[in-house]
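re: ur question from earlier - yeah i can do the single chain one, its not a big deal. heres the input i used so u can compare w yours
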Amino acid sequence: MAVRLARWAIGWLLVLAGCLPLAAGALAAERRVALVIGNGDYRTVPTLANPGRDAAAVAAMLRGAGFDAVELRQDLGNLDLKRALRDFMQTARDADIALVYFAGHGIEVSGVNYLLPVDARLKSDFDAEDEGLSLDRVVRAIEPARRLRVVILDACRNNPFQNRMQRTVSVRAAGAGLAKVEPAVSDTLVAYAARAGSVAEDGSGEHSPFTAALLKHLTVPGLDIRVAFGRVRDEVMRATNGKQEPFVYGSLGGATAALVPDPGGQDAADPAGRLVRETRRDYEFAERVGTKEAWGSFLAAHPAGFYADLARAQLSKLTVGAGASPPAPPERKPLPGPLPKPSPKLLPETRPPTEDPVTAAIDPGPKALPPAAGRAEACQRDAETLARLRTRRVPEEILRFRRELTCEELRPQLARLIESTAAEEALPPPKVVPDPEPLRPAPRIERSPGPERSPGPERSPGAALPPATARATGAPASCEQEAQILARLRATRDAQEIDRFARSLACQDLRPQVLRLRESVMDE
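and the output i got, formated as tokens:
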């Protein structure tokens, strides 16, 4: 009850703070948990081939379906089996859906079903209560789940202890398979691999027939679990030629009960709630790992919002506790080529006066460094903003960020971004030159004496001057064409294309802009 009240209070606090929209399903995501057990390495009877593989495949399926917690246990003895169920009962108390899957041997003694650990001996029917785990206890363990409880038993195989067990009372008997069960708790299903009183096959393939069908149908998004078990039944009966019929005991209400929500249902109707649920799940994963790398990965995927602020606080604690400064960005290798390497920009403390009036107006000088405790957080936040501005390249936002910058290590990169952005803004848009009309004979005009110019080669209408001709004659056509290429390269920012373009550049007026673009790409 205390946990539920805490979750309710946190949800409302987030709503009042404006961090979480009040929408259906956004306050608390549905929590799904599972316990998966595979017992195949029995010590006193022949081992089973498939339970280990079956349990591992089911656990992987549930994790892939987005279950919040999936506990996989293999070849458990008597004490470990009961402890695993007891621990899972605590997990199910805070869950909406709880599922238990067991693959191995199960027997029925006097109407009571038992799941057998790998160290069971069962010299008499009286030992079943001590050496086995009763099915009733499994159902009671998942009873705290709020919405749906499911027990899946691939344990209806032949009883290997039946011939050796002694009957202590004449009325006690051990039957084939498992006995029929009627769950006392509503919204609870118990699925058998075979109908009560019959046995199931372990299978000759990689998985048993029952588990192979479960892997195909159980976690189909939006599929009601009753329909899923119906499809499992049909497939198993086809695979076994009608010899094995899975059966489900229990009842559910009229609402759809799916283990995996339909992505076109709640998520489509509530995209904000879906985003919050995904962010919360990622935050919980990063919190479990608890390393600086984990928090860095989370912030890379979720750079803003309430959980991002919490992650930065966690990262700041780790950085201050370790007594180390944030790692320096990796050194970038210069692009190959004969181009002269631009002179490095000086740090703000020794920055020379700039000739660019735009940069000078927005570059008032260095600011005081933040306290050591917040240095890592400030640099992380400024680095994320700088990366976003490199993509959007909005001059107003870049100028505002220059005034608010607190991480001095990023100032040289910001200065280069400002230079490249200012160059882009100063570059006039490319002109559209109409195709010239065909040359026609013109009357001779008497000119003043002067050096005669040899007529150039005649060209077809619409043809552009070749680069060599354009450089020789000084025509602006080459500069206009290369200005268009430069504008395209500013958008694509491909380092190799920029380098090739710089080598073949004919218009020398554009070379400073190309160098600035090349330098800004090298810093990214």
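Residues 383 and 410 are 7 Å apart (CA to CA). not sure if urs matches, ping me
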